[in-house]
Amino acid sequence: MSEQKMETEPFLQIEDLAVEYYSDGKVISAVNGVSLRLEKGKTLGLVGETGAGKTTIAKSILRILPDVGAKITGGEVKLEGKDLFKLSEVEMRKIRGNNISMIFQDPMTALNPVQTVGDQIAEVVRLHSKGEKHDFVKRAEEMLEMVGIPAERYHEYPHQFSGGMKQRVVIAIALACNPDLLLADEPTTALDVTIQAQVLDLIADLRKKYNTAMLLITHDMGVVAQTCDDVAVIYAGKIIEYGSKEQIFDHPAHPYTIGLFGAIPSMSGDEEWLHPIDGLPPEPFNLPKGCTFHPRCPYATEACRGGTIDMRRTADGHQCRCINIDTVKKQEG
Amino acid sequence: MARYVLKRLLWMIPIALGVAVLVFTLMCFCPGDPAEIILGSTATQENLAAKREELGLNDPYIIRLGTFLSDTFIHFDLGESWITGASVKEAIAERLPRTLLLSIIQLIISFGIGIPLGVMAAVNQNKWQDNLCMALALIGISIPNFWLALLLVILFSVKLNLLPAMGIGGIEYYILPALAGCTNGIAAGARQTRSSMLDVIRSDYITTARAKGVPEWQVIVKHGLKNGLIPIITVMGTHFGKMLGGTMVIETIFAIPGMGQYIINGVNNRDYQVVQVGSIFLAIAFSFCMLAVDLLYAAVDPRIRARYAKGGKRRAKKA
Amino acid sequence: MMVSVTNAAVSAAPRKKQSEFMRVMRQMRKNKLAMLGLIIFIAELIIVLLAPFISPYDYTAMDPIAIRQGPSLQHWFGTDDLGRDIFSRILYGGRYSITMGLFSVAISTTVGMSIGAVAGYFGGQVDNIIMRLLDIIQSLPAMLLTIVISAVLGSGYGNTILALSVNGLPAAARMLRAQMMRERDNEYIEAAQSINCSKFRIIVSHLIPNSFSPNIVQATMGVANMIVMAASLSFIGLGVQPPTPEWGAMLSGARQFIRQSPHMVIFPGLAIAITILALNLMGDGLRDALDPKLKR
Amino acid sequence: MKKLGKKLVALGLTLSMFALPLAGCGGSGDGAQTTAAGGSGDGGAESTAAAEVSGGLSSLEDGVLDIGVTVSWETLTPFRSNIANNVPFAYAAYETLAKLTGDKEYIPWVAKSWESAGDGVTYNVEIYDYVTDSAGNSITANDIKWMIDESKEAGLKPCFSKVDHVDVTGDYTLQIVMTEDMVGAFEQILTNTFVVSQAAYEGSKDQFATEIISTSSYLMTEFVADSVISFEKRDDYWQKEELIEPQNAANVEKLSFHLIKEASQAGIALETKTVDAFVQLDQNTATQFEGNPDFTLKAMSYINGYQLYFSGDESRIITDDLNLRQAICYAIDTEGLINGVFAGYGQKMHDPIADTSVGYLEKWKDEEYYDYNPDKARELLEQSDYNGETLVLLATSGSTMQRLCQMIQGYLLEVGINLELNLVDTALYTATRLDGSQYDMTINTVGGDSLPDHWSIRYDCYAYSTGDATGRHDEELAELLRTTWTQAGFTEENIDAVHNYLKDNMYAYGMVQPENIDVWRSDLGLQEAVVTNKGSVNCLSSVYGE
């Protein structure tokens, strides 16, 4: 459905991914038709409000959606040409933690409280590499040093570490087998600002070292600006704007993206009022027809309410899912 | 850790003393005169009076309590049963292991069957396995164990002639009594495991484990179950008391000469010595098992182990 | 005085209680199985209360011809070894068994909560002594203590209730104390202290209403345990004696005929099992409705 | 709704699964007949299907005769109280000077002979001079004297308190002097003095608590308190073959007695061959084996009957109301009791004392003794000054006693007498039975080897501080009793006089004398069973078909 066909196969290709949840009788379409592309070593920022389906996308790439209520109902995810959804569970397990790994949002609960920190790292190494127990321990100690934790603390338990230190352990686990793709699900949200910077720098150094591609999920535009190459804005399970960082930051085309930028206090101008986007994100089980943003969009026209809204190319070449790009561009100017 | 265990062991002495005083006082208020029971209905008044004097029943309460406590706790002379003259120490040495063996087998079966059932129910929640497990658990809790004991005897000993219906001997003698006694335990274990596993499965470190490529069953058992064990152990600990009590009834049905029958006969025959000393030993054995359960906490959860190591001031929350 | 403390608590804050009660009921209605349990239990209570009118035979009438007959049209549950109709005896027996369970739980919960309240609020030495006493009582298996006490008090309906109520007591006290300890550190208690509420008022109108919900759940399950315990007591010859048609006594009396006329053993056992099943369903529903995070 | 449906289906599925055991034992219900089969009225009848006598003890798989019992010893000490002294293995454990047989005569055992010195209190006893125990110690008169003195001092068995002193008159002869001339007192010493070597007893590590060194023809091989006790025949038994009385013979190689108190398990133990025989099986459980060719039932009169004692205490209305007491006796249908409670195994009594006691006159059985007659009962009730008060019946809470009391309650209600049951456990019963003010009637099974024995503890108003056993003060009856105590006074018309006095004043009403039932595997080929004085088969000395 994307306009131009890239010459070489992209490193990671997601086509029309759709995921539905079932809870007491109601069907919730968390992700309905998401297509993304990521080059090797590059970073893609996935930005949107909570509940827009960001984490679901990451989890469906790794196929670790909690199977009680969630089901992938369509689309495909190709990693270096191989469609992950076609793989058997055993093959998928070889990829998890080895080719693709994930960092989670809340470090406080992301580590197993009854297992030593070192063992948790050694476990992922053991799963994906041959060798004796002491090799894995050595590797785990290396990773601890690499993320700035003294190796002596190998045998300590998660409750003996601070939030920031725990996130470092999670990162050590994720990067222990030098994965090709790193899915970072809001890695710094639960940390305070000073620790946030250290963690981001740590991720950046390690990625440069192993040339790891990263899908960064966040709702913090500052983090996107600092680390991402491309940006995709997601709203109610659909990508509504997709382009390079410069294109999105300099010329946001979709009213929602503009609204997002409007909600950030900019250091330069002294705005009396921030412009929050009025209204609330739509109920996932009965999404509005046509453009899902039209109830909250100041530029909504009759056309927006009906029919499917496709991605359009904007002036500077990035894509946007809005039929009134021109009128919006004129007024925002 | 050793400090904590020592503290708990020292703590058992006042508990044993407390139990001794409590049961002694209770037995004093028991109607019925032991002398008449011993000598039977054909005894003359002089016989009875002599017997009462010999048993010291005429002394005031405080003196009798004093002699009893000094005999038991200082001289470790556990005396003889008033009715049969059999030494209490030997009787307990013979019977306590049987009752404890039966209770511990029941505990192990309850853990052994209860937990996997609970995990299976939690893993495929709301599927047929879940409903079946929970229905089984509900039935298990509802059936009184002595009634089930009778039915099991009919089914397995009489109809199928597989297992001995009564008496003591090899391990096969303990299967039916243990089975009858532990259905409540299995049911409680399964229900508790299911509810704590449901909490655990939704937590983040399970997703982390899955993201690491850990096989599903390892995720559930190694990561999930190990974290869910604390509330399960708590329920099992409290349930062990009920099981030990239940064993007393099961013993009467399966003609197992254990502590239960011993104490019940003691109470019926107003055999004060047997009931008092029997209760003390049952209480001590019970406290040892509860201590073992508490130590299980520490073994399973490092956070508690840390608290114990730090002088163990706050004992693990029992609620 | 202690006993009245808790009754006063319930009446002292009815308004807040009402909404709480409604919320609990709404939540219970959602849980189908809990409603099933509630319906079965209520049905049992009604049938048992109407026993004199709906039981086909007088439960003491002996019919020397129909000794130990299996279930038939005239006698739905068959007759026992003295020719009495088992169906009517189970209806009457329900009065004894269920009320025994209810009363003993009521006593043990009330007294237990009073002790728990005192220990919970005053803390320090008082709490320590009470807790050590409870340790001693709890270090004995409940059945043993009940046996000794029922031997002291003698057999019979009232005495057995007292004997049974002893073993639920430590658990109720401990539970309320633990809950109160948690509630005591909340701000609204400090607020009440700051406007120098008397200690008594704080316990009655603030601490207890917020702490006793787990006790309710435990009480529901407690009734089931007490019924089984009462039946086991009769089984070993203590507790209620056979002239009174209590289910446990019927079961105990009938067990020697299990080979020739098993129906005498099956029906009382089933009656006990169904009552406990209903109570457990209610207990589960109540626990989830009252405090979802309390999924102990 | 779909979710609930699935839950209910699962619930139903498991319910049916649990119905399996119920159906299992339900199925058996129709197997054995359920109606109470009318048992044989007279005692001692064998109701076997005429299975031909075969196999004998050789058909025992493990060569051990396993016998189920309902009473057992917790300790094996020879100094015992009267509790559980009717255990079937008593004869295998210890021998006594003499043995009281099923047909009420004293046969010599360790004692060679004994005779009274004429003054009614002194008796000379001679024992065999070649008696040895299993450890090889030889038994002399000193051992016997030591045993009697020790037993008297221990005060466990009241019969020894009637011994004044014992003198050794020779290596194997001794003289026993009683405190008073009482019929049967000396004989009780003969049958209750265990023969044990003093040296062996004092050398034993725990005074024979868990081991036995006795002169018995059996050696105890295994003992687990409250569970099992096993014996093996000794080959070095001291008595010469030809001098062994048939009641003392040792005809079984290996024996094992299993304690099974649980009523429901007794029948099952027989069915599952856990035991090869059961002594004193509960009558209702025994009906299950009637007409079953694999099992032989042997019913014998029990030594005691169930007696209804009326209170003699002034405070009770029943004490002076003879009409009320007689009305109660006529209101009780003893045949109904026999069928309802003892499944037909029992006989109506004609005196509070059972017919197995020494001194029982057979002619009493032909006399009219308050046969069931509700109209007469109502008539007597009119004449009595009873107007609706609730009488109290005190009894123990054993399962048989409970059913008996409930039936009596039913019978009295029919004629218009309200009765309240006060069922208590044994300990409480022994505490209140002597206090006549606590009850109007009490049921007990008081026996006694001989009549005076029974009478002295029940009706002698000088026996207890409160009068007789129910608080009655009847000097005239006490005089009458005393005439029968001495050997000389133990004549037929004295006994008859007491019988008629009790019958006319109705202080106690003998209701039902149940029959003990011993159940045996038919292939053991039990021929003529030797019967003990307690009314059950003596498993040691009985003859089994070879």
How is this structure best described in words?
The complex is a heterotetramer of chains A (333), B (319), C (296) and D (546). Chain A has 333 residues and is an alpha/beta fold. Chain A has one domain (3-99, 179-332): P-loop containing nucleotide triphosphate hydrolases (Rossmann fold), CATH 3.40.50.300. Helices cover 33% and strands 22% of the residues of chain A. Chain A contains 12 helices and 12 strands. Chain A has an 8-stranded mixed beta sheet with strand order 6-7-8-3-9-10-12-11, sandwiched between helices. Chain A has a 4-stranded antiparallel beta sheet with strand order 2-1-4-5, with helices on one face. In chain A, helix 7 (193-210) links the parallel strand 7 and strand 8. In chain A, helix 4 (117-128) packs across helix 5, helix 5 (133-146) crosses helix 6 (163-175) and helix 6 runs parallel beside helix 7. The radius of gyration of chain A is 21 Å and the shape is globular. The two termini of chain A are 30 Å apart. Residues 1-6 of chain A have low confidence and may be disordered. Chain B folds into 2 domains: 2-74, no CATH class; 95-293, MetI-like fold (Orthogonal Bundle). Chain B contains 13 helices and no strands. Chain B is globular and about 85 Å long. In chain B, 57% of the residues are buried. Chain C has 296 residues and is an all-alpha fold. Chain C has a single domain (22-294), classed as MetI-like fold. Chain D has a domain at 306-515: Dipeptide-binding Protein, domain 3 (Roll), CATH 3.10.105. In chain D, the strands form 3 sheets. In chain D, strands 1, 8, 9, 10, 11, 12, 13, 14, 15, 16, 17 and 18 form a 12-stranded mixed beta sheet that branches. In chain D, strands 4-5-7-6 form a 4-stranded antiparallel beta sheet. In chain D, strands 2-3 form a two-stranded antiparallel sheet. In chain D, helix 9 runs antiparallel to helix 11. The longest helix of chain D has 28 residues, at 2-29. Chain D starts with a helix and ends in a 25-residue tail after the last strand. Mean pLDDT of chain D is 82; it is low at 24-53. The chains are: A alpha/beta (333), B mainly alpha (319), C mainly alpha (296), D alpha+beta (546). Chains in contact: A-B, B-C, B-D, C-D.
Keywords:
A: 333 residues; alpha/beta; Rossmann fold; eight-stranded mixed β-sheet; four-stranded antiparallel β-sheet; 12 helices; 12 strands; 22% strand; globular; D: 546 residues; alpha+beta; Dipeptide-binding Protein, domain 3; twelve-stranded mixed β-sheet; 15 helices; 18 strands
Helices, strands, pairings?
The complex is a heterotetramer of chains A (333), B (319), C (296) and D (546).
Chain A: E1 12-23, E2 26-38, E3 43-47, H1 54-62, E4 70-79, E5 82-83, H2 89-95, E6 100-103, H3 107-110, H4 117-128, H5 133-146, H6 163-175, E7 181-185, H7 193-210, E8 213-218, H8 221-227, E9 230-235, E10 238-244, H9 245-250, H10 255-262, H11 302-305, E11 312-313, E12 319-320, H12 325-332
Parallel strand pairs in A: 3-8, 3-9, 6-7, 7-8
Antiparallel strand pairs in A: 1-2, 1-4, 4-5, 9-10, 10-12, 11-12
Helix pairs in contact in A: 4-5, 4-6, 5-6, 6-7
Chain C: H1 2-12, H2 14-30, H3 32-49, H4 51-54, H5 86-122, H6 124-139, H7 142-153, H8 157-184, H9 187-194, H10 199-211, H11 213-235, H12 247-254, H13 263-290
Helix pairs in contact in C: 1-5, 1-10, 2-13, 3-5, 3-13, 5-6, 5-8, 5-11, 5-13, 6-8, 7-8, 8-10, 8-11, 9-10, 11-12, 11-13, 12-13
Chain D: H1 2-29, E1 64-69, H2 90-93, E2 98-100, E3 106-108, E4 111-116, E5 122-127, H3 141-154, E6 163-170, E7 173-178, H4 185-192, H5 198-203, E8 218-224, E9 228-233, E10 254-259, H6 263-271, E11 277-281, H7 283-286, E12 295-301, E13 306-310, H8 322-331, H9 334-342, E14 346-348, H10 374-383, E15 390-396, H11 399-415, E16 418-424, H12 426-432, E17 441-444, H13 451-458, H14 475-485, H15 492-505, E18 508-521
Parallel strand pairs in D: 1-10, 1-11, 15-16, 15-17
Antiparallel strand pairs in D: 2-3, 4-5, 5-7, 6-7, 8-9, 9-10, 11-18, 12-18, 13-17, 13-18, 14-18
Helix pairs in contact in D: 8-10, 9-11, 14-15
